[in-house]
Amino acid sequence: MINDDFEGVASGRLSDKAYRRLRDGLITLEFEPSQPLNERALSQRLNMGLAPIREALRRLEQERLVTIYPRRGIFAAEIVITDQQSIKEVRYELEGLAAALAAARGTLEESETLMAIAEALVLETESPNRIRGDARFRRHIYAMARNSFLLPVLEMHHNLAMRLWYFCRRQTSRPVLGPMDYRPVATAIAQRDSEAARALQSKIIAEHSDILREMLH
What we know:
Blueprint: H1 14-27, H2 39-46, H3 50-62, E1 66-69, E2 73-76, H4 83-105, H5 108-123, H6 127-145, H7 150-171, H8 183-190, H9 194-216
Helix pairs in contact: 1-3, 4-6, 4-7, 4-8, 4-9, 5-6, 5-8, 6-7, 8-9
């Protein structure tokens, strides 16, 4: 069953709801790589009309989670292991930038929420919950950055990285991620220390990417 692991479904356009539910199913490999995606079947599964499903699928194609072939159909995108390095290169720079902007633009209330997410994540022991917690933490930073041009690029590459994490988790019985202490990043953002926030966030991206690379090879 598709669920909204990575963010709550707020009120809004049906296409946005369809996008979030399909996105999460693709990230967690509920839809297998290269699996055909039938619009009518998805419409019944999500209890939505065809129009929001089609709009969501077009959006997911732009984000490389879905592949659409004219006259052949729609498919969940393949997992391309060699993409990992390119994703890391983009995320290393842009995740750091997002943290720096969050430090400069975030509110006190947003910083307190970010720290609460980080505190809860330290106590988490299950790999799937750590991945979900990581997503909540990062998406909260993206919102705090308040840059509508940066946001879709961050989301796209984070989603692709999470999909690789779920792929690795399925291939091994050992924990995918160790302890995740994001409190130093949250503290730097709360203290409006943009440079520290940038450096700490980029360091986390590099460390996680290195773990992922080792697991993929």
